[in-house]
Amino acid sequence: MAKYLNIENSAEAVIARIHDEETAPRFKEIMVAVIKHLHALIKEVELTQDEWEIAIDFLTRTGQICTAERQEWILMSDTLGISMLVDALNNRRPENATQTTVLGPFHVAGAPELKMGTNISLDGVGESCLFQGRVLGTDGTPIAGARIDVWSDNADGFYDVQQPGIQPKWNNRGIFTTGADGAYHFRGIKPVSYPVPVDGPAGEMLTGMGRHPYRPAHTHLIVTAPGYQKLVTHIFVGDDPYIDSDAVFGVKETLMAPFQKAEGGDTVWECPFDIVLAPVQSR
Ligand code: BEZ
Ligand code: FE
Fold first, then answer.
1. Cα R_g (the chain), whole angstroms
2. pLDDT for the residue 68
3. How many domains does the chain have?
C-alpha cells in the first residue's frame, strides 16, 4: 500500500490506523465496515466539495435540533428504514407470534393502570372504537397477567405530549392487565394518520426526495408478560390511504386489523385483535 492516502487506498489507509490492542473486537468490526462503506459511497457519487459542506451542515443541524423531547437522529433512522431493519434483525419471532414494529418517540412510561373496559379517550373527540382480543402464547395458551400499554394519537393526529395544555394528560393512553382468560378490551378512538415532524432536517430530506411524511393510522402497544418476549408493536387501520407508503416503513401485513362498524350503542367501531407472545427462549 502507498505510504499516504490516495483515492484508491483511502479506506485501507484509515483502517490501517486501528490499533488492535486498544480496540474492542466488535467496535473494530463496526468501524471497519463504517469506513469501507463511507469511502465507497463518496467514490461512487464523486462527492463534490460543495456537497460535502452541505452534508456537514445538514448533520450539524440534525444534532442541534435534538432535545430531551426531540430526537431528530432517530427520526432520520426511522425515515431511512434503519430502525425497522434493526428491529427485524433483532426480533426474529416464530411465524404465528405477533410481529414487532417501531416504538416511535411518543411512548410515555407510567401511564395510568386502568380497569378492563375503560375509555382512554379523555377528550371524547374522534370515532369511538372498542379494541378487544386475547393475549395468547404461540401454543394458544391464554396468558394471565399480561400488561398491555397502549397509546394513540387523537382525532387531529397529535399525541397528548405534542399538545400539552390542549389535550388532557394521558389522553388516549393506558395500561390494562389480563385476567386468567387472557382477554382484554378497552375503548379508545379509531386512530387517524398523521405526519412525522417535518420542521427539521428529516423533513428537508423527505421533501428533497419527493416523499410524504405520513404514517398510516395505528394504535401502539407494548405487551409484556413473565416468561414471554416483550412485544413492541402497532395495530394498523388496514384501509388507511398511507398503508403502503408509511414514512417510517413500520407496516407489516399481519398487523393490519379489521376495523368493523359496531352495531348500535355509542361505539362506532370494533377492532378485534389477538396478541400472540413468543416465549423468552425462542428466537
Ligand atoms: C410513531 O408512530 O409514533 C412514530 C414513529 C416513528 C417516527 C415518528 C412517529
Ligand atoms: Fe404513532
1. 23
2. 84
3. 1
| Ligand 1, atom 1: closest residue by C-alpha | 104
Please give the residue range of the domain that contains residue 156: 94-282
For a mutational test of ligand 1's pocket, the pick from 80, 215, 255, i.e. the residue with the most ligand atoms closer than 8 A to its C-beta, is 215
Pocket of ligand 1 (CB under 6 A): 75, 78, 102, 104-106, 196, 215, 248
Residue 20: inside a domain: no
- Which stretches within the chain are classed as H helix? 10-15, 25-45, 49-64, 72-79, 82-90, 201-208
Q: Residue 226 belongs to a domain with what CATH number? A: 2.60.130.10
**Phi/psi class of residue 59: alpha, beta or left (left: φ > 0; alpha: ψ in -120 to 50)?**
alpha
pLDDT tens for residues 101-151? 999 999 999 999 999 999 999 999 999 999 999 999 999 999 999 999 999
pTM of this structure? 0.94
pLDDT mean over 19-34: 97
| Ligand 1 atom with minimal separation from the 220 CA | 2
Per-residue pLDDT averaged across 51-71, rounded? 95
Grid coordinates given for 13: 489507509
Asked whether residue 12 is assigned to any structural domain, the reply reads no
